[in-house]
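Hi support team,

I submitted a single chain yesterday and got back a structure, but I'm not sure I'm reading the C-alpha cell output correctly. Could someone confirm the output below corresponds to the sequence I sent? I've pasted both exactly as they appear in my results page.

Thanks,
R.
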Amino acid sequence: MRTLDDTCDTFAIGGDLTVNRLGFGAMRITGPNVLGAPDDVAEAHRVLDRARELGVDFVDTADAYGPGTSERFLAEAGVPDDAVVATKGGLLRSPDGDWLRHGDPDYLRNAALCSLDRLGVETIDLYQYHAPDPDVPIEDAMTALADLTDRGLVRHVGVSNVSADQLDRARDVVDVATVQNEYNVAERTHDDVLDVCEANDIGFVPYFPIGGGDLGEKAAVLDDVADAHDATRRQVALAWLLHRSPVVLPIPGTSSVDHLESNVAAADIDLTDDEMARLSA
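Hi R., thanks for writing in. Yes, this is the structure output for that exact sequence:
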C-alpha cells in the first residue's frame, strides 16, 4: 500500500502546520460510548503505529473522549512527537455519557492546561472550542482561546459545531484556523460553513465523514461508483470529501488496523467530474 505522502495532497493549518489532508479521529481509541479505555489496548497501539507508517500526520482528539483517555493514550503512544495533534475543550461528560456544553472562559483556560498535561506538550498545535454554549456568548469563549495563544500555550484556534454566523463572530475575536462540523456526502447541512472556510483558507474538518457507515439516500450511487473503482462505499465517501474542496481534512476514526488501511486507500481514488456530480446531486 502506498502512503499518504505518495497519494494525498496537503493543507497548511493556520498557514504553517502542513499536514496530509486525510487525518485520523482518535475518538474511537476509547471504550464503549467513548468512555474509559479501549477494550483492546494492544490493537489501539497498532492502529496508531500503522497510521504513522502510512503517513497520517494529523490527529484529532478531545478532552471529553474518555474523558481524558484519548489524550493520554496519544501521549503514551508518542503521537504528539510525530503528528499535528488537535484537541478540543468545552464539553463535559455526565456519568451516563451525555455531552454537556460548558463554555465558561475560565473553564476553557483550565481545560486547555489539563490537555497540555495529558498530551505531554508545551504548546497545543490546534485547540478547538468543542461546541458553543448557549449560555455563553461565543465572543467570550473565543477571548479565552485568544488569551491561550497570546501566552504561547496554543498555536492555533479552531471551532466546532458552529453556524456560519457563529464562525463570523468567532473570527471577529481571533484568527480561526479550522472548523469541525458534521459533514459527509449524505449530510450537507453545513455547505454554507464550508463555503466560508474555502473563501478564507480555513481548514474544514468534517466529523462523521462516512456517516457512521449509514449514508442513507446516497448508498446506491456510492455503491455504483465504488464498483467502478473496485472500492467500498466508505472509501468513495472519503474520496468525495477529498475532492469536494482543497480545505477539507477528513478524520475517519477506527479501532481496527484493517479499517485504517482501507480508509487511507481512499486517497488513491480519482473520481471523475461525472462521478462527483452524481455524488453531489
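A quick pointer for reading it: The chain has a mean pLDDT of 95. Let us know if anything else looks off.

Best,
Support desk
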